[in-house]
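User
Please review the sequence:
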Amino acid sequence: MTGLILPGDANRWAEDAPGSPEPGKLVRAMRDPGQFDAFYATARQRLLLQAFALTGDLAAAKRAVRDGFVAAWHHWHKVSRQDDPEAWVRPLTWQHAQRRHTAHFWHREGSLAPEHRATLDALDELTAIQRRALLLHLLGGLESDDFCHEIGLTQASAQRQLRLAAAQFAIHRDIEPAEVATTLRALGDPLEAIRLPRASIIRRSGTARRRAHTSIAVAVLTAGVAGIGFAVSHDTPGIASIAGLRGADADTGRPGAPGATVHLDPADLLGGSDVTRLAAKPLSEASTGNNTDGTGLNVPCQAQRFADPKALAALVRHFASPVTAQGSPPTGLVQVVERSTDAKAATSAYDATLGWFSDCAGTRVQLLAAYQLEGAGDAGALLVLRNQAAPVTTWTIGVARTGSIVTTLARDIADAHGPDLPPFVAAVGTAVDRLCAADGGATCATTPRKALGAPPPGPSAQGMLQAVDLPPIAGIALPWVGTAPTKATTNPAATTCDHADFSGPDVTSSLTRTFLVPQAKLPAQFGLSETLGRFRSEAKADAFVSGVEKKMASCEDHNLTATVDEFKHQPKGPLGEIHAWRLTIDVSDSRSIDFWVAVVRRGPDVAQVGFVPVDKAKLDQSDFQALVERALARLENLPPA
């Protein structure tokens, strides 16, 4: 399966008239005006719908379609030879639409019917990449192995973003997943009456454009330009600069190509003797390369081949897992190294690498622990993750930077036991020592030590819980999906005891989001919510938390059906303040409902976490407490007050 297939999905929005060319697959021999006109008539309405869904701006969408086809006629001698001419026009049309769209999403289309406005509202809740993935698949008819190139992701990451986009769109649009495709296509209904320029007008504009470009070229040549240059049309998708970076292949731009003037030496990587304590039996070197073969994805949740797309060089070494001793789980190990142009670029690559492990949306990977590594070069971090999908696998990830070099060491063990961390920390230190003396290296390792640290910031909703933070639900083999954060005008994490309100005058900013397992078909009340607020001062935040405490403590006095148990009371801690309760409401003599709720505070920042379990989907108290502690740690991801 290469992409999300929704029930009732068709690869194209509209059926073509009998005898018309297959959408986007016109014959290569298209050269005369009649063939262009047929292509324009077939594809223009599809592209108008796509551009409108992308921006919500009808004026921008109409002009973008016009400009895209004008450019297509300008380059028709090349476009007509494409296997899929529509694939040439589409990225150009989308680019023009986004460039022309300057208003807030759908703001300029106030006359839309409520159902179409609701669809655009739901699309607006998605990230830019998620929206593009969803539209390319459902309105463009592309599978993930095709559209991943258009959105700049690997196929696996594109599939993950597509699944997440469909799930979040269904939640925000309040529809079933099976209705996503038809709901998006329904946006085309109000576009049926839109009049686009005739094909003859498009061709005249394209011809005039070609003549203008030719005149400019002749003028430049006759002016006697000194030197030799290359003219690249900005309308031609997929054409890269002819100049490559140092250490990169001029054709592919990939780091570490043959003939690179800046390189990494494989001798500076870890060897078998350096990793003897990381497995039950000694690991042996299996392969070493520049990470340009295969998918290039070496660690869980990795979003792209290189953390620094402009890296000067890269190396990856895999260690073979030997036949394990009886009772010992299989172990794998990989080291990845990237050399950036300077320390600033390497710092960005270091941050990007860590960010992968907070963006495991659409998977069942859980971030179990996060540490800082002190004494491991210029910067270092240690993470423990577990993939809950069978077979359960535990990953230990070490990321370190020395100068302009970033190295990642990743070990996977096929079991659910806690990993032995001290030998791994020592191996990360050895990796840094091997690289710090290399070209581009800087600070070497001393004696690396781990200390509890903040988890890597997520790609969105910084300071809030991420899907990777949530524990698995027993008996449900499906991932959590989080909604996009919105302003906390209401607080879904509150209970009937505390009624905590994050919209008061003492709150300068607030956000709320909810996590669900949308495909598990659980009762509607199930879910985990978090609401975050920054207060005007630390004193205001402290008073807010004290108010919640008092309301929870007096709840049983005001509600005779309520039982409140505060199982975590930490007014002062190394990271901040934690209070957590289990609230039970008796709804009859034989039935009760449980709620888990907690508030955490770090300085002026307060978060409330609420979980409503159901019979088939529950969390243990220890799991909820660990999640609340993670919510407190996530507050460190916020910018300073």
Observations:
- DSSP finds 15 helices and 15 strands in the chain.
- Residues 467-637 form a domain with the Protein Transport Mog1p; Chain A fold (CATH 3.40.1000.70).
